Amino acid sequence: RRKCPVRCRGARLSLGQGLAMEAKPPLYPVAGAAGPEGDENSLGVPDGLGAPLDELVGAYPNYNEEEEERRYYRRRRLGVLKNVLAASAGGTLTYGVYLGLLQMQLILHYDETYREVKYGNMGLPDIDSKMLMGINVTPIAALLYTPVLIRFFGTKWMMFLAVGIYALFVSTNYWERYYTLVPSAVALGMAIVPLWASMGNYITRMAQKYYEYSHYKEDEQGPPQRPPRGSHAPYLLVFQAIFYSFFHLSFACAQLPMIYFLNYYLYDLNHTLWNVKSCGTNSHGILNGFNKTVLRTLPRSKNLIVVETVLMGVAFLAMLLVLGLCGAAYRPTEEIDLRSVGWGNIFQLPFKHVRDFRLRHLVPFFIYSGFEVLFACTGLALGYGVCSMGLERLAYLLIAYSLGASAASFLGLLGLWLPRSVPLVAGAVLHLLLTLSLFFWAPVPRVQKQNWILYVAAVLWGVGSALNKTGLSTLLGIMYEDKERQDFIFTIYHWWQAVAIFAVYLGSSLPMKAKLGVLLVTLVVAVASYLWMEQKLRRGVLPRQPRIPRPQHKVRGYRYLEEDNSDESDAEDCGQGQGACAEEEEPQGDPAGPCRRPCPYEQALGGDGLEQ
């Protein structure tokens, strides 16, 4: 051993390692390898017979492709329902917190004793007036930026951002100063139209996606095509009914701070209404002669902080609902294509849609939709309700309106069996009868015998509001089902609502008869204009719609190496007019031609593009 060279020792070591490796059993059984009789491999097949390769790498023996596909699309449909419920609950909590905080804040700031003790000579009434001006005036400019924001952030993220701005407004009430309340009110005014436009667009898109997931087998029978016109209408009716049944509950949620907190500090009607001489149709402005002191005792700052913290927590919960439970409204490639039409075109298209006669005929209904909501919260609730029943009954009157509207939202499902104009016109007729009745009725202050009439009027007005809101949103979703137009259409709708709310803010000091007269004239014009539009459509008059430009992708990333557009939204247009689409088709040929800019992969390989 001492004389054996190193090579011999290395040979002996390698020989020993080889024998040890031969002695070890294989880690994995070899398919088809022969072994001793009676031995079985891990599949339970005798080694002598051999195991077929398909049993090792083949599909699961009990796999049913149709059943798995059916389960997959059922999960997608349940996901769509989850999105609708989450968006509806988020909108309800957001608007409920906003209305509840604003109502409590205005009542507290109205009391002279509260202002003098808590804030001294800070000028709280002036701050409140400027805050209301910021909330009501700022949405007038929303038509200029809302479509750009929705296309830039996306529908879901626009909803989340707007709900966050509502939460910001709630948070500024911890420290009530000019430099906190007024800027947050201006930001809130900027977010009103984007929030509700993106909400309407989101619910419409969910109805279209639910139709796609319910009729997935139709796409497998041939080349992918657009669904027939109006095919998603039944799902849209159901989803809009769910959304507005949740949304109208926000008026009831907004009364919880008043019922469980503020009502314990209020004077009764004999004190607050002692100088009120006329109510209802004989009144002027808002609560003329109402007492300047409405609080028996001032609430402690500690209790106010607790209430505002609860409201802030609910607003934060609404943000989490939208962020965590709401899925995307579009696929990533669809959102890229929607942004790629050019920001200048996105800015101009809301104005270009004015050429469509259907929108022009619906503008009076949009304006009336804003009028009637503000009249329910100010004219009916204050001019008729508080003026005769006292401030302590305001919460219960608005809860009656809220529950009536929430329950009546499902009356919009009548559109599944009746013509689409029936629910919308029925709500308008109900409001017309109520407006005429209120025009000739003046309740007597501090008389409790007529309270039931006010509650019935509030419930019926809520029924008309629900038919109005569900009917208009469903009508727009059916007439404009192209996903390239929906955000523009809902922006126009909610912008006209904001203009109507601004007009109500300017005319708050008018007599009640003037307000009812404007409401009555607007309603009659809206119904006549809508019926004229339906008559034009029955005669076959084609609307003139602006052309949506094709997406122009300036960067050819991995997603756009193909020459074809990833979004097939223009398939129907090509079927209707071959000439127009033929002009826009790119020339067929070698994609790597000398006139094409090299893609990043070719640049990495060293291609010179034009110089090459």
Give the DSSP E fraction (strand runs of 2 or more residues).
under 5%
Q: Major beta sheet, specifics? A: none
Question: Could you estimate the helical fraction of the residues in percent?
Answer: 55-70%
The count of helical stretches stands at 25
Identify the overall geometry: globular
Q: What's the rounded overall pLDDT mean?
A: 82
Low-pLDDT stretches: 1-17, 19-24, 27-38, 560-594, 607-612
| Helix-strand pattern | HHHHHHHHHHHHHHHHHHHHHHHHH
Measured distance between first and last alpha carbons: 70 Å
The radius of gyration is: 33 Å
- Count of extended strands: 0
Content-based structural category: mainly alpha
What layout of secondary structure does this protein have?
Elements: H1 6-23, H2 54-57, H3 65-110, H4 112-119, H5 124-137, H6 142-153, H7 155-171, H8 178-214, H9 216-220, H10 233-247, H11 249-253, H12 256-260, H13 269-272, H14 301-325, H15 332-339, H16 343-352, H17 357-389, H18 394-408, H19 421-439, H20 451-479, H21 486-506, H22 512-538, H23 571-576, H24 578-584, H25 600-605
Helix pairs in contact: 3-7, 3-8, 3-10, 3-14, 5-8, 6-7, 6-8, 6-16, 6-21, 7-8, 7-14, 8-10, 8-21, 10-18, 10-20, 17-18, 17-20, 17-21, 17-22, 18-20, 19-20, 19-22
